[in-house]
Amino acid sequence: MTPEAIKIACSNCNLRELCMPVGFNPGDLQRLDEVVATRRRVKQGEHLFSNGEEFTSLYAIRTGFFKTSVSSEDGREQVTGFQMAGEIIGLDGIVSDRHSCNAIALEDAEVCVMPFANVEELSREFPVLQRHVHKIMSREIVRENGVMMLLGNMRAEERLAAFLLNLVQRLHARGFSQSEMVLRMTREEIGSYLGLKLETVSRAFSRFSEDGIIEVKQRYVRILDPDALKKVFNPDTCF
Amino acid sequence: MTPEAIKIACSNCNLRELCMPVGFNPGDLQRLDEVVATRRRVKQGEHLFSNGEEFTSLYAIRTGFFKTSVSSEDGREQVTGFQMAGEIIGLDGIVSDRHSCNAIALEDAEVCVMPFANVEELSREFPVLQRHVHKIMSREIVRENGVMMLLGNMRAEERLAAFLLNLVQRLHARGFSQSEMVLRMTREEIGSYLGLKLETVSRAFSRFSEDGIIEVKQRYVRILDPDALKKVFNPDTCF
DNA sequence: CGAGTTCTTGACAGTGATCAAGCGACGTGG
DNA sequence: CCACGTCGCTTGATCACTGTCAAGAACTCG
Fold this sequence. Notes:
The structure is a homodimer.
Chain A: H1 3-8, H2 16-19, H3 26-32, E1 38-42, E2 47-49, E3 57-63, E4 65-71, E5 77-84, E6 88-89, E7 102-105, E8 109-115, H4 116-125, H5 127-153, H6 156-173, E9 180-182, H7 187-194, H8 198-210, E10 214-217, E11 220-223, H9 226-232
Antiparallel strand pairs in A: 1-8, 2-7, 3-6, 3-8, 4-5, 4-7, 9-11, 10-11
Helix pairs in contact in A: 4-5, 6-9, 7-8
Chain A binds a DNA duplex through helix 8.
């Protein structure tokens, strides 16, 4: 086994607990490495996959940051999510054997390529992996339900507050600060995700800053008063 | 085998092609019947499952019409979908072993109860079923991507036009008219799904009616000019 | 038949979009 | 290392779409 092959193995990956199931016994753990065929580097701005492209694999993000988006026939674009290390993308392609959205790297990234045929084959052999795949897909469905709530019921500042809290929480789960972050996306991309124009996003940032809830300097954001931020999108909690 | 048991069997169900995979050979087809444990009747207005309830089963709709919804802590409700015969609900529960949304019958309904343990077990045995389960979940993810586009980028009339076309298309696939339908949901429920208030939905209906695009009488809707309706939410197509 | 629900329509208000201008950061090349 | 150009961000002024409030009509169901 070459050093490179050791690095590539799920069994040695420090992100395993994020993207792979737990509960494997040491013997079977090596079999798990068979899901990942190769790794692939994606430079900032490049597509990992595009709408209409043939679906062959799921991708586990090792490093970097992605956005996924769909576009309507008349050219309007909707960002459907932002994904970071340990998260799985490409699930949209399963239903029609073609991708129906675009995945674009927001910074230089590296992904593990998991041919879906491998995933399905090993899933049949290992119920714990099967369950894990089901959970990942279910989690995505539930996440999108939450976005629908956001887009359908919340006002601009509520949306941004929920967005920032979600982002910092996911970063914190990966060992980063729970109060500071550097955004990897533009105001326009945030706006697209939240169903707002970039000017509205910018104004909401300024408003939070004026109110002393956050500190903003371009992409850098520091959450000064997390409780106030939570109250923005859940006003009834203040009693 | 009792007559009731014959009726219950997937292998004899005329909806099978909608909710079950094709390509089973006759011998294995009988095994497929094992996914369905029982059937369950749900009266109009009753919950099939509720937020927080333990997840045990997926449900295939035999007859009737459902809505699913999520609610925020401060009581706001968002309808996340409308489901009809042949569609599968309950996928939201897999990730946390609890349902995170509510499923409510909009008319008297009957569902096939498919314990998820059965689904997973048979999926391991039959790759064609495994693939089918994956496709159903992927389809739901893609559908929600479309709803995000709707909520994030479209104006009121575009949303309603897209909604009506989607609904009539699904009904048509089930053998109903491709121009007429009777809505099973209120204006408020449509509005919740589309991120609009009921008055806005009502006005959009009236507008379409004035323009001769549809004929509306309460819940009854007839599409007079499907092309005009398509142009509403894709204005660039008119050249 | 009557009570309650659902739908329609009108008047007005408010949130966020649009249009516009200027600023600031960053990167590239001289 | 600095100048300049580009891209992203901020802020202001105005507008338009949709929300809110209200009243009445139509329908449903017991």
